[in-house]
Amino acid sequence: MVRLFTEELNIGYGDRLIVKDLTVQIPDKKITTIIGSNGCGKSTLLKALTRVIPHQSGTVVLDGSNIAQENTKSLAKKMAILPQTLDSAAGLTVGELVSYGRFPYQKGFGRLSKRDYEIINWALDVTGTQFFKYHPVDALSGGQRQRVWIAMALAQETEMIFLDEPTTYLDMAHQLEILELLQQLNQQQERTIIMVLHDLNQAARFADHIIAMKDGQIIKSGNCHEVITQPVLKEVFRIDADIGLDPRTQKPMCITYNLIGGV
């Protein structure tokens, strides 16, 4: 089933096109990962899919409607996005930051209702951050802060969560912690997860669907066995990769690689 797709999407900054004539479908209730080299349009596509930035032409369709014409609060009840660079939460406690996820549901003076508090506490519980509810966000570790931002996204009660490089600046253990949390949200709550990742082996391990991009266009999309291949990685990243199978997951993994044609 597909609820979100694009048709001949063009996205750019000024006169420079970053994403060109892109048509893509996002599988519902699955984990989709977008991979590609720096500057290929991964983050730009993610932002356009969530209307953070406008597109120049083409359409982004969600549930049969063009998102460009969707009411902002209505759209915020369907999709949440965590950008690569998160806004400062200086002076906020964890509970206060997570409560911002309830904005699409607030009316009048914006007071939180009993239902709002129930959802906030649920989001804290699910992400394992309830203990930090009254702690300053700035006092947390990188992995803990990332969990709190995910809790805020969950508090929006959206069925789709978009994340731009959610494991950046985290050590290996915290990267795995965040990715396993997202996988749990997908498998247990059927959340549709769309994220940009740089680590090919993490993409292969956790994604149901992978989109490989180069120069603003899709080179290959499909499951990990279809995308994490020597020819695709050669075209997308200009590397000669040796691909094996992860002994724990039987998913493809990049064992080693060389640059093609030197530096």
From TrEMBL:
Taxonomic placement: Bacteria, Bacillati, Bacillota, Bacilli, Bacillales
One GO term of the biological process aspect: iron ion transport
GO molecular function: ATP binding; ATP hydrolysis activity
Record's subcellular location: Cell membrane
Organism of origin: Planococcus versutus
UniProt-recorded name of the protein: Iron-enterobactin transporter ATP-binding protein
Gene Ontology CC: plasma membrane
Family matches, as CDD domains: ABC_Iron-Siderophores_B12_Hemin (cd03214)
Annotated ABC transporter domain residues: 4-240
Membrane topology listed for this record: Peripheral membrane protein
Keywords tagged on the record: ATP-binding, Cell membrane, Ion transport, Iron, Iron transport, Membrane, Nucleotide-binding, Transport
TM regions (residue ranges): none
